[in-house]
Amino acid sequence: MTSKQSKYIVQTHLAAPPSRDIQDISTSRRRTFTTYSTPPPRSSHTHTHTAMAPGTISPGLHHGNQDVDLTSSAIEHKLDAIPNGKATNGSANGSKSAYQELDASKLTYTRTQNPRQVPDLGSANAGSETIATDHMVAATWKAGAGWSTPELKPYGPISLMPTASVLHYATECFEGLKVFRGFDGALRLFRPDRNCERMLMSSTRIALPGFPPAELEKLIIALMAVDGPKWLPRDRPGSFLYIRPTMIGTQPQLGVQAPSEAMLYIICTFMPVMDSPAGGMKLHTSPEDMVRAWVGGFGYAKLGANYGPSLLATVEARNRGYGQILWLYGKEQYCTEAGASNFFVVWKNKETGRTEIITAPLDDRLILDGVTRRSVLELARNRLGDDVDIVERRYTIDEVMEAHDEGRIVESFAAGTAYFICPISLIHHRGKDVNMGMGSDGQGGEYTLKIKQWVRDIMYGGEQHEWGVVVQEEH
């Protein structure tokens, strides 16, 4: 294998699962996604691909074995019913259908009569309640009838019956992305198509309705066009707001069943800057009696059920002076995620001595296909040259400890929407502290800061890039 090929290695200790091409839901492009009907069997050898680890937006294939692939078959059937690219309210032969797809072109506007004052950045995140902008977007869904006309309306409480599905069976999913006020004055979203496609995957996984992702993206842009100019004014370049699309099951009936009613809403809020904690982020490895996600579960979907059970250990870790949990998996103690962020290590390969940026793979569906993660990997592959290998494979905390003891650790960082790209200074594992390297000035390692600046430039307009989607603001 040439050094050029080795730069794109993706390794996994799992047997290669089947794959297929599917039509990308929000565009006319075709992408290849790997799909699964059951958790793939463990293999005694290392399987090597010369491509990026597959995305997890696609469900498993239905191979006819109804005893083992019920979940993947159900997801596939839901996705097959969603039109490609745009909302349609008629059948393929032109006849009128009663079912209404989510359609952003029908968005109605009800402006607030009580606009609120925009807080200064110093106090925006100081209270116990998250501050949201003036408006929200909402639409409801009913089985058989489909989606209601979406409405942009004043931000405020939502009404639920005490028997609503979400309150009892966790039928809920959400997304998280940011809107940025650029140094060039423009308002930008960062790769919103990825978030919208991932939300479709999450909603189908939790038995909520599907939708055309492009329509969700249009609704997000519409909300930002209205609230962006006021809440991210041009005199605050370099600042951001957090966007939270959410879907919940609202059917007011007890019983373990897929909800026949749901609500989609989109809000925009303030969020503190979390990517530069003093001295870097400190991680505590997960306790042996707790696991965040498991093969065959739903760790790859952005569901509230992934986060609530992790809070107990996180609170305890913070009480001990650590920022997040480094979640380990299995008796091998594979490294998976740092809190709710993807986890990266930069080290020297034990055999070759080459520098590697290594992170957990997507193909076992344990971790989230993070938008920041994907962007880090794509930029690193395209811009770091042949001196650094980008590796996606399972690796253990023992490998990290060994690399530290042998002086091969270069640096480490976490990547996600909330923490952006955050340098990691230390990992505490079973009574031992492992220093991960913070660079000569203590602000982060060379690769961490370089990749972080590349992404930041795209977000804030320092680099004109297709990932930066400019919002046409109302004036």
TrEMBL record:
GO biological process, one term: L-valine biosynthetic process
Gene3D superfamilies: 3.30.470.10, D-amino Acid Aminotransferase, subunit A, domain 2
PROSITE patterns: AA_TRANSFER_CLASS_4
Region (Disordered): 30-65
Required co-factors: pyridoxal 5'-phosphate
Family: Belongs to the class-IV pyridoxal-phosphate-dependent aminotransferase family.
One of the record's GO cellular component terms: mitochondrion
Catalyzed reactions per annotation: L-leucine + 2-oxoglutarate = 4-methyl-2-oxopentanoate + L-glutamate; L-isoleucine + 2-oxoglutarate = (S)-3-methyl-2-oxopentanoate + L-glutamate; L-valine + 2-oxoglutarate = 3-methyl-2-oxobutanoate + L-glutamate
Enzyme class, broadest EC rank: transferase
Keywords, in A-Z order: Amino-acid biosynthesis, Aminotransferase, Branched-chain amino acid biosynthesis, Pyridoxal phosphate, Transferase
MF terms in GO: branched-chain-amino-acid transaminase activity
Entry's EC annotation: 2.6.1.42
Protein name, as recorded: Branched-chain-amino-acid aminotransferase
Superkingdom in the source lineage: Eukaryota
